Structures are given as structure tokens and as C-alpha cells.
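name: query_chain
kind: protein
chains: 1
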Amino acid sequence: QFFFRVLSAGLETRVKNWKSFYHALKSRLFNLQKISRAYQVGQYHYDIGNELYRHMLDTRMVYSCGYWRTAETLEEAQEAKLDLICRKLELEPGMRLLDIGCGWGGLAAHAAEKYGVSVVGITVSKEQVAYARNYCKGLPVKIMLEDYRKVAGRFDRIASVGMFEHVGYKNYRIFMECLRKLLTNDGLALLHTIGRNSSVVIANRWITRYIFPNSMSPSAQQITTATEGLFIVEDWHSFGTDYDTTLLHWFGNFDKNWECIRNEQYDERFYRLWKYYLLSCAGSFRARNTQLWQVVLAPLGRRKEYCAPR
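structure:
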């Protein structure tokens, strides 16, 4: 509620210092999300222990915004989100799906089980690879430790859920070119990402220092500019207020299970950092300072009409 009030009043725009200029210059001069740095966020954030995420997330360990239109629990919201993605992609048995940023395998398993597709999932986290391979065992799912720029092959559908925030503005066009190269001419891609209200080249410095190194959220303009000449934007779905609800459920689980989580690695400092992270982000979404988008993309020239489910 504190951050909701601060951000609703626009107070963050009134505070400027030389460090903001320094970080903006650094972001312009260097590609902070180049391939050699791509695995840093995996090591720093996602590899810190599956037990932490098991106690904080739903049973599928889906670490992205749930869909709360008809859901009453976190479990229902995440299942609704996964199914919404599959329906938006018009998945059919026999298709090949590429899951960029597959996490712990929740979407890959759901798509393979419920829609009969084969899935290739990639992530930059070693812990996620180990967990997802076991979670998807027996399903037509292949999980790889790989950067999106190194993937080869052709796919009928591509999903990127909660990963575009790690791409960086210097690589948005490269990301879209990779999608187009990997996608069949009559395919569909879905981009599920946190978004900003304005186009900037500097990320939230607290988040990049303590939570997600080298991360930044895109603006709508940055996304559409990156797609020009490659894709048709078939659908743009905004439901950022659902992230407020999702984050409160994550913090509720984190707080409730803290005594089970805490150890030498997860100390009181860690608790304060993550409480600040989860609740400040919830306040930002509540203030509509931050957005959550699902964007459906089709290659230029696709003639079939697209009707997006909700």
C-alpha cells in the first residue's frame, strides 16, 4: 500500500541524482544482456534453491502472473493462465512448441499432457533444467540449458513466458528475428511479459542489484518496433492488476513458510529483501505503474483470421 501511494502520486519522478545518469550511460554504451552475460540471472536468482520456490509458488512452480478472471486460488489462477496460453496458441496434437524460458516445466508439461504437442524448453538456470527434466519425465518434452540465440530448428508454435524481461532493449530486435527464424510461416508466437508505461534504457536499479541482474521491462513501443517487418500483432491482452493478486499470494506463501525456508543462505536480510521485492512490485502493479501483457504474434502474410480467447 505504501508503494501504491508513492507511485500513484508520481513521487519517484521527482528524485534525480548523478547515479541515474551514470547507469543510463552504461546501458547505452554496453549490451548488458549479451550472450556472455545471459546466464548470470540464472545463477543469481533461479539457482538459489528449488525449495524456496516450492514453498512460495503453486504446485507446478509457475513463476509468472496468474490469470484470476474466474480463479479463487493461486493453483487455479496458474492453471487458467497456462490453459489460456495454449488456447491462444491454438495448439493441436502433433505440433512442436518451443518454450523460451521454460522455468520448472509447468507450461511444457501442461501443453504436452492436455494438448498432445511435443515441447522443447530452454532456460538459463541449471536448477530449473534438473527439476523440469524430472517433472516432465515420460512426456514428449526436451529441456535444455540454452540461450534463445543458440536455438536451431523449426516450430509450429513458440511461447515466451516471463523471460522477455531479461532480453534487454539492445536485443529486442534480435529476439524477434530469432522467433521469426524458428517459427513456421503459418505459426503463432505468444509473448507474456511485464511492461513499462514509457520507453527507457535504464532498469530499476534496486531490482537489478538485489533480485534480477541485467533485467529490464519493455514498453509497448519497444515491442512493436522490434516486430516491424517480421510479425503481425494479432492480439494484445493487458491484465496487470492480476499480478498484484499473484504477488500477494506468493508473499503469503513465503511469509507463512519462512520457518521452513530459513537457513544459513536464507537469513533475515534475505527475508527483508524478498519482502521488499514482492510487496513493492505488488504496489507497482496496483498503481498501474507496471503492466502485464500477453501479445500474440503471427508472421507477416498469415491469412487465417485470428480470434483470441479470454
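note: The chain has a mean pLDDT of 94.
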